[in-house]
Amino acid sequence: MSRLSFKEIRGTEDILPEKIGVWRRMENAAREVFDLYCYEELRTPILEETGLFISGVGETSDIVTKQMFSLADRKGRSLTLRPEGTAPIIRAYLKHRIYKNPIAKIFYMGPFFRSERPQAGRERQFHQIGAEAIGCDNPSMDAEVISLLIHLLNKFGITGGRLELNSVGCSLCQGPYKEKLREYFAGEETPLCPDCQRRLNKNPLRVLDCKRPECQSLIVDAPPLPDYLCNSCSEHFQKVQAILKSLSISYHLHPYLVRGLDYYTRTAFEITHPALGSQNAVAAGGRFDNLVEKMGGELTPAVGFALGMERIILIQEKEKVTAPLETRLSVYLAPQGKEAFQEMVNLLKELRQNGIKSELDYEGKRLKNQLRLANKLNAQYVAILGEEELRRKTITLKNMDTGKQEELPIDLSDCLNFISKVLHLIPPHI
């Protein structure tokens, strides 16, 4: 009889228990940093109407033209697995009237989906952590968002990144610049790649984002975008740079940096890291002052970023970054025999109810094997209860770091108080 055999879909990955600690540490660290900056979490559905991304991200973007996973539901409506986080956040911002707050500071984290060739740090299901500050057009907010991003990376142990900075202007300055780009590329003898030839007519800014060698060789001599900024956008960009300098945040001006989504205006930025090789972007973002209005709201300024969690982990592995350990297992309970097991079941319940991370041997292993497993679980202490301890009405508490052993009274209250004391916790009250 043949057995069914299934495996994960190409471009997706099982995150196993032995690896999940890295992910949890990143998520917990991110929440700590977001809390410092007064950002609140918002969780949006994985499935959204396809039109949300066509309208929000832009019909000329690679995401819409090439990368979306879309399907029809039973009523024939087109739905899409979310390929990015900003458009869903703005949809929720409008639907739930979050705009009643003067400035909405929102963060999100979770899985996203794009149909592209899988490679290291670029899977079809990938995970992002992002933030959006909605309702403020002050250049200081651009700088705060960048500062927040750098704070996050430092919290993850990531150093050595490079901040690339540019301004993509607004509709007033983008119009003349797009015409200048069309003139420039049309006059070149070397043709653009087929994709960029199509982009040149619809949105020439997309050409600047192309990574093909034949296009890159032409882009380096193209008219620099900042030269075409209107007075308002130029002033905004200068103020952003001045604030970054005052915060001692170094950056590199990149006159051809644009984002791969059509909603960006003014400030655009990217953080790259050499450990990632050619696909070296670890995080990116910028300002999107027209997106709320485009999606049916009032004209509302906004700025944000997203970082790739898989890419953070790749850097940590390559740079041998030592992340802080998850909370250790405080006590491993090692009973010897049925009577001892029942006593330990009662103790386990009290330990956990008093916030002490504990585990119990349910399989009746020999003490030697229990100690070996406790060591593997990185337990701080092992509580041993055997025939001798039962006779003396005590529990032996072994410090797994020092090997020192102490005898505790088997009484639950006294035992809990002692364990809480050695763990530097507030003594429980039973």
Q: What is the share of helical residues? A: 25-40%
CATH class of the largest domain, named: Alpha Beta
Largest β sheet strand count, sense and barrel closure: 8 strands, mixed
Structural class: alpha+beta
- State the helix count: 15
Q: For this structure, what is the CATH homologous superfamily of the largest domain?
A: Bira Bifunctional Protein, Domain 2
Classify the beta-strand content into a percent band: 15-25%
Count of folded domains: 2
Name of the CATH architecture of the largest domain: 2-Layer Sandwich
The number of strands is 16
Distance between the termini: 57 Å
**Largest sheet: spatial strand order:** 1-5-6-11-10-9-7-8
CATH topology call of the largest domain: BirA Bifunctional Protein, domain 2
Described by the principal axes of the CA atoms, the overall outline is elongated
Rg (CA only) = 28 Å
Family: Belongs to the class-II aminoacyl-tRNA synthetase family.
Catalytic activity: tRNA(His) + L-histidine + ATP = L-histidyl-tRNA(His) + AMP + diphosphate + H(+)
Subcellular location: Cytoplasm
Pfam families: HGTP_anticodon (PF03129), tRNA-synt_His (PF13393)
